[in-house]
Each structure stands twice: as structure tokens, then as C-alpha cells.
Amino acid sequence: MGNIPILFLSAFKNSPLGYIAGISYEKVNSFHRWVGRLIVATFVTHGILMGVLMIIQQGTPFSVWIARKDVQWGISAVSCLLLIFLLYRFVCWFFN
Amino acid sequence: MYCSATRWTRTRFHEFFRWTHILLTMAFLFTAYYHEPQTLYPVIVSLALLCLEWLPRLLKMLIPLPKATTTIYPSNIIRLSIPLPLNPLSKLLWRTWSPGSHIRLTIPSIGILQPHPFTIASLPSDGTLHLYISAKRGLTRRLYEKAAAAVILQRQLYLNVKMEGVYSAKDTGFAKFDVVLLIASGIGITFTFPILRDLVQKAKILQQGNCRCRRIGFVWAVKHESTPIPPPHPTTPAYTKVPSLTVVELSCFSTELSALMENAHGLVALRLYITRGDQLQGDLTTPTTSPKREKAAEIPSTLVPFVRRSRPKVQGLVEQAVEEAVVMGRLGVGVCGNRGLTTEVKNCVAGKLGTGMPDIYCHAEEFEG
Question: From B254's CA, which of A89, B131, B184, B291 has a CA 20 to 30 Å away?
Fold first, then answer.
């Protein structure tokens, strides 16, 4: 979650990151995309590893695990991220 | 070599992408909070940063500006002129742009919450901000229809506009290069033309010492509209016969260009290419809303020697510029066109990097069309 402020910071049109590094909006935007990819990868890994830990190592049944409120919220959060990612890919694909 | 600036905002899906991006980000932040309440703190930090960044932009947009007037040119091009006020605040905010910059323009009566970027085609010394807008679809098309309706009603259209920021690439000073090559296709001239004017002014008229430019190659490729223009309106006289040397897209810049060339002998090497566009741009005007078309202007006689009827040979142009730059000094290349052109220029420049030129600056702007 610590990455989120960086993600926001790099999304701005007049980004302070751009002033510090002396780079243009387009370069900052490509940085923004890389931070985004990193965040998607981190959260997807987090979800998978938590599932593996609970179900396989601790022997919690899948039905009990999926019934937990925080797990459900977590899964929906990750699907939001994945949807953002997929939409971006879709726009890129359509544009090219 | 430094390549920057892809202007992909004209894609059809950009609006869709923008809104889904915002909504899904909000959805993600909420769900992440319910998943683990500790995530509130980074989110608060992010939102505070967001407000800090948006507030100045919002305030800047609320500053009233004089109303913009529209002029319609052939090939579905609209010119939007915004006279800039002379007070110190506007001087600070608007009147100091570098040539080749762009603004984000909102026209509340046509599309609210739809800022579109447009390149400024005039210089700060003009006192007026000219934007040449090629009508495609969406907002630009609605703008065209509105301007066309005003022409039919023989009324001047005054539009309320809001501008956001003058944005430019971090490093667009072409004055520091000995040899400058500017390549544009179609409406891309809105990017290269102010740069050319600025350089000619600095080098020839003002004789500024910090302008190193000694050679400028200016290349502009336009499509040739060969089919006769159909009579636009039943009541207007039809001019079905169009002279063969009529280039519709040239008309809005050709007179200015020929005036500039008189001042720039020996400095600017001008080349105009007329390519035969395979498919003509779809005519947006429908019989009911079409304006009286201005008669397409012929090419001014001073420009005729520079016209070639072919596609620009980018490889040859870049090679020539590099040959000159090897003798003279540094080379800067500016290109604004569709993806095919910018890619071709970038590849040629990259291919020339090893051969005698250690460093070439290349600035590419791109549009769809």
C-alpha cells in the first residue's frame, strides 16, 4: 500500500516527480504505468500466497476461507486492479 | 537522442478509458479499506496530494477569459482565436508559452468535463491564441457543426472557453541547435509553424546572439484533394471545377508561410509535398448544416517553386540535415504527424546516430488521422 502515494504522485499532469527528475509528463506517465504494474503484481501475489498459506499449509477448508469478509473484500479489490490493467491493455491493443 | 510526447488523446476510447480508470481506482481504494482498515493512511496521503495538485489547476480554469471566435477553413479545419487580456495576471499565466506548447481546452457549451489538448499555433507576441482544430468526431465534430451553423446564419460565434495550463515538453528550445529539421504532415504544422516563426524572428529580425540556428529545413506534407468539391448548398453557386493546382489544406497556412519566407532567405529551406491521399478525409458537412465553403485558395506564387508532388522522402531529408550538421554543429529534429511519419523519422534519426553525429535531438508529436 505504500506504493499508492507514489502511484498518485506520478499520475499528475504537473507532477513534482517530473520537476525533481527534470523529465516530461510522458516520461512520468510511463513511470506511473510501471508502478501500476508493480502494484498489480504485488497484490495478486499477496492474494495467491495467502490462499496457499491458509488452505494448503493450515488446512482451512476453501469454503471457510472464502466466507471470511476480509477475504471477499480483498478479492474484489484485486479484481478492480486487474480490471484496470486489462482495460489499459485493451485500449493499447485497440490503439495499435 | 531523446524521444518524447505521444499524443494519443484522439483515440475513440480515451474518454471511456479515463472514466473507467477513475471509477475503478475509487472502487479499489474502498474495497482495500474494507479488506484491511490500515490502508486508510496511505489513501489519505494520496488524496491530499491529489487535492494539492488539482486545486491550482481548478482555480486557473475558473479565471474568466475573453470569448473565442471561430473561423472555418477548408478540409474541416476550424480556427479558434482567443484574444488574451493584457492584465499582469494573464501575462503571468498565459502569455509566456514557448512555441510548440499545448493547452487543454474546455468548451462548456459543447462538452463539459471534456478537456482536449490542442497545440497553440501562434506566438505570445501575437497577443491572440490561435488553435487550429481538425474536425474528426466527438467534441471537434460538434464544434465544427456549431461553427458551420453560425456561418450559415451569418453570425459571428462567440464561445465561452476555459483553458488549463500551458503545457510543453521540458526541453523544446530549438534555438540552441545549429541545424533544425522540422517535419509535419497535415494539421501537424500547428506544432512546427510557431517554432519556425520563432526561430526566424530570433535569427533574422531580432538578431539574437543566443539563437544558434543557421539552417532550418521545413517540410510539410499535405494531401491533395483532387476531386471537385460538390456544391455545398442548393442555394449557393456551385463551383464544380476546381483548378488543378489547388491544395485545400494549404490555404490556412500558405499565405503566412509565404510572408515568412520573404524574411528568411538563406536560412530556411522549405519543402512542400503534396501527396495524393488515397482516401480523402470524410466530408463532415451534411447538406442541411453545410456552411458556404470558402473558395479554396491557390498556392501563393512565391511558394510554387517549393512544391513537390510526391511523398516526402524522410530518409533523404534526414541524411541531408545530418550532412549539414556534421559541418555546422548540433542537429535538432522536430516532427509532428501521424504514427507512420513519426516512426519513419525516428527510425531514420536512430539509424544516423552512429555515423559522425554523436547526438541528435528528436522531438516527436503524434496524432491520429
Answer: B291
